[in-house]
Amino acid sequence: MPFSGLRGFRDYPPPEAGARSEIRRRMRAAARRAGFVELEGPCVESFELYQTKSGEGIAAETWLFRDKGDRPVALVPETTPSLARIFVDRAKSEPLPVKWFTISKIWRYEEPQAGRTREFLQFNLDILGVPGVEAEADLLATAALFLDEVGAHGLCAFRLNDRRVAEGIGRLYGAQDIARYFRAVDRYRRIPPAEFEGEILQAGLSEDAARELSSLFVQAGSGVALREAEPYFQELERRGVGVDAQAGIESLRRLFALLDRAGLSDRVLYDPTVVRGLAYYTSTVFEAFARSGDGRALFGGGRYDHLIELFEGPPTAAAGLAIGDQTLEILLKGAGRWPEGEPPLDTYVVVNESSRIPDAIEIVQELRRAGQSADCDLLGRSMSKQFREAARRRARRALILGLKEYGPGVVVERDLTTGAQREVPRSSVARPA
Question: In whole angstroms, what is the distance from residue 137 CA to residue 322 CA?
Fold first, then answer.
């Protein structure tokens, strides 16, 4: 009986592996252009690290086991705790602000479904040491750059909120159990309206207030454009949404102004239903979503100003976001923008008979040392099959050895796009394609 992969895990044979590698390359390039530097953490951490941030509930979706020293350890289910641990260790010597990015494998024991596997790749951006919304503006601008670079331009937008505003709205409508209220609002787009109203009733809202709040969220639709957000904020202020919520509104105003200056006003919306499920977010929260389809979140993030202190570090302002590879892949493939795979070869060396394979290998090595990608046939196949292989590898040119109509010391260079060919001296083949 042949072996098969584990449920919730995927294989990525060529050309998929090459396409994913290209996405990672673009991720890194965009992050570095924005001034972020790469951080790499381990794939196994002490389970206590995740309990510190998320409490006991994290065990349900963590690949938890005991090592040979009988210590509880876990495959990394998220990178933020590792980042916090590393920062705390370096806090006294690390100049602020810190701008780190990570590209890491993540493991979560969840029910597999479209866009969700038990092992996936996650791209994180984090800024530490910036207390103002300039951090969120930089994060979202970098995320926009990243999405454009991987081919998602025009396919998605950002929904923004502030948890202080969200709490103010909840209390305005009578919520007593804010944690339960947040859990209900976080599920607003994923559950039927009747179920949502039932959940906010349990948070302390009256039936009339629940219906009114539901109507408010329906009016907000998929989010409120920047030019329309100000009347929305003014109405909340008029109704006495509370001091903390007022601070959240002012924060959103400043953030929206910065995003407008950054040229992102066409892809940013205010959405009162965005609260993010994790309790450690302290103010700004945001999500990216596909403009068409089911509107699923492509990534999420926000400000978490108290997290570093949880890990016994100094008070440190912090904000970040995380992008998973599975939903991004679905988005790009659905739009026909997924990369083809490995980059094309610069050169494929073709021989007229197998006795010339050593000559081809010699030229291939010269080309590689000169910085070009090059390959040749190793099986002694016919010239027609070698050209088919060159086409499959999307080679830009072929160097043909051993054609009898050409003299010694000469190879034939063929442009595999146009079909044009010419003689070139053997001594000059290791040049830019």
Answer: 15
Sign of the dihedral through C-alpha 173, 177, 178, 184: negative
Last residue of some domain: 334, 356, 384?
334
What does the block give as tokens for 247?
Answer: 């601070």
From CA 10, how far away is CA 120, in angstroms rounded? 9
pLDDT, tens digit, 9 for 90 and up, residues 217-235: 888 877 888 888 898 899 8
Structure token pair of residue 90: 């370096």
Residues 145 and 273 placed together within one structural domain of the fold: yes
Q: What is the CATH number of the domain that holds 386?
A: 3.40.50.800
Domain range for 274 is 16-334
Q: Is the domain of 51 the same as that of 192?
A: yes
* Overall number of domains in the chain: 2
pLDDT 10s digits, 270-302 = 999 999 876 789 999 999 999 887 666 889 999
The encoded tokens of residue 432 equal 């830019």
- pTM, full prediction: 0.91
Interaxial angle between packed helices 243-261 and 134-149, expressed in degrees from 0 to 180 and rounded to the nearest 10: 40
Cα distance between residue 82 and residue 78, in whole Å: 8
N-to-C CA span, the chain:
48
Number of Cβ within a 10 Å radius of residue 102: 21
Give the position of tokens 């389809």.
293
Average pLDDT of the segment spanning 58-82: 92
